Amino acid sequence: MPAPQLSASTLTDMANTLSKSIYAYANPAVFEPVAERIFRLAFIAALVFAGFGLYFGLLNSPADYQQGDTVRIMYVHVPAAWMALFCYSAMAASSAAGFIWKHPLADVAAKETAPIGAAFTFLALFTGSIWGKPMWGAWWAWDARLTSVLILFFLYLGYMALWRAVADKTRAARLAAILAIVGFVNVPIIKFSVDWWNSLHQPASVLRADGPTIHPAMLTPLFLMIGAYMCAYIAMLMASMRNELAARRIARLEAEDHAKPANLVET
Amino acid sequence: MTQFLALIRRDVALAFRADGGALQAASFFALIIILFALAIGPDLKLMSAIAAPVLWTGGLLATQISLEQIYRPDKEDGSLDMLVETNGALAGVAVAKALAHWLSTGLLLIAATPLLAFLLNIELTALGPLMLALLVGTPGLSLIGSFASALTASLPRAGLLIAIIVSPLYAPFLIFGAGAAAAGAAGDAQFLPNLMLLGAASLFAAAVSPLASAAALRFNLD
Questions:
Q1: What is the ipTM of this complex?
Q2: Higher pLDDT, A263 or A249
Q3: Which of A5, A167, A193, A265 has the greatest number of beta carbons closer than 10 A?
Q4: What is the pLDDT of residues A5-61, one digit of tens each?
Q5: What's the number of CA atoms in the CB half-sphere (13 Å) around residue B195?
Q6: Beta bridge partners of A64
Q7: Which residue on chain B is closest to A155 by alpha carbon?
Q8: What's the burial of B54, exposed, middle or buried (CB within 10 Å: 0-12/13-18/19+)?
Q9: What per-residue confidence (pLDDT) applies to B17?
């Protein structure tokens, strides 16, 4: 059977349609109402997911046979840790998109993902620390996972610091995108090195609290909470992207206002 | 190739001038070790136990303060524009700059290490593995560091920002480097794996850093 032929012109056509549909959203007037709608939907979905997730997680799921009720920290901790990594990947992906296609919204998405991701990372560290106290007897145990998430937190901070330091927004976007991509390819290496470091310095078995497999009754609230966190991320991203676009517009209008000659302003 | 070598020669010469980074970095390295020793107290046993990790940390911090000097002066006096204009392969320029930084600052820090190691009462048998680990790991520090320097070349004061950007990326070097030094001192079989992973980290930096630096430099031109 002959393979379906794709001529060069069909490919170009497809690429053109794709880029046209993507670039339409580069216009804030087009993006704005869509972002508004996505924000509302995601916000409501996050509330619903969190409502059910917290109900099942905190009230209607079994306590762990070893950890007792402490295991319920898992329902806020694990999704946060998951989102910490997800947001960094999303940041690197939109950075790459902004770098390759010079799409202004991709840069804004990457920039606005960073503080949200950093907040999830902090939440993962904070709840992990609270979980560690009853489990390990210490707030911080230099567990391999906690340590690599701590380093991830500082990767976020470096990215945000670079954005703040470069005054020209276009240049800041390009430079921050390069840093995000370099950071992203380094994350597995850092993760591996910390695992190696940890196994070298202390036996991992002591700190492995995650027994055999998770009971299905615990899996339901966990998945619900992951849905809640994901929807919350989307809602916050849309809100802060709209904020950023509005802030840039205000800055532009003010700059135009200052650029006017004084006598024109007075009349 | 002659251009490549000329660039390295120029950068090494500049690094040893009064306002170049190499000598300052080495003095800072010595001062970090002295401050560490003052904080620990004159407990020779404790000192020899933590000598290698302290030297690795000190070398890493001293490297960081010299990074700003790699690209910023070139950006300020316009020679960076010349380099970009006259070189098709900007990544080659980035390799030369990183190599020059290692030949000046990196080697100087390694040369200062034995003296400082004896101040910290290191065992004679532990010195060899430590030096070897530094020799394998410091090129990676220069490569990653020169990337951060390229990223911030157009900023007037980037020292602290470079430190914040670079420190998380230096974590693997510190882990494998200090790990190799510790394993080597104890005669542990983990020495070689640690050293090889350290080499892998340096090689990975050699693959990523020149391309990323070249991209960053292009966006830092006016």
A1: 0.91
A2: A249
A3: A193
A4: 556 666 667 666 666 666 777 777 788 889 999 999 999 999 999 999 988 888 877
A5: 19
A6: A68
A7: B168
A8: buried
A9: 84
Are the beta carbons of B64 and B145 closer than 8 angstroms?
Answer: yes
Cβ–Cβ of A196/B175 closer than 8 Å?
Answer: yes
Q: Which chain B residue shows the shortest CA-CA distance from A164?
A: B161
Identify all chain B residues contacting A182, using CB atoms and an 8 Å cutoff.
147, 169, 208, 212
A133 — pLDDT class (breaks 50, 70, 90):
confident
Amino acid at A227: G
- Residue keyed to tokens 């190599």: B99
**Residue with tokens 């762990």, as numbered in its chain:** A64
Count of CB pairs separated by less than 8 Å, A with B: 77
Alpha helix positions (H), chain B: 2-15, 21-40, 44-66, 68-76, 79-86, 90-101, 107-119, 124-151, 159-186, 191-219
Phi, psi dihedral angles at A45 (to 5 degrees): -60, -40
First to last CA, chain A: 77
Tokens for B145, please give them. 């560091």
Distance CA A22, CA A189 (A): 33
pTM of the predicted protein model: 0.87
The crossing angle, in degrees rounded to 10, of helices B107-119 and B21-40 is: 20
Q: Which residues of chain B lie closer than 8 angstroms to A144, CB-CB?
A: none
CB atoms within 10 A of CB B135: 15
Identify residue A234 by its one-letter amino acid code: I
Q: Is A68 helix (H, G, I), strand (E, B) or coil?
A: strand
User: How many CA atoms lie within 13 Å of A251's alpha carbon, on the beta-carbon side?
Assistant: 9
| CA–CA separation, B217 and B160 (whole Å) | 19
The C-alpha atoms of residue B213 and residue B87 are separated, in whole angstroms, by 14
| N residues, chain A | 267
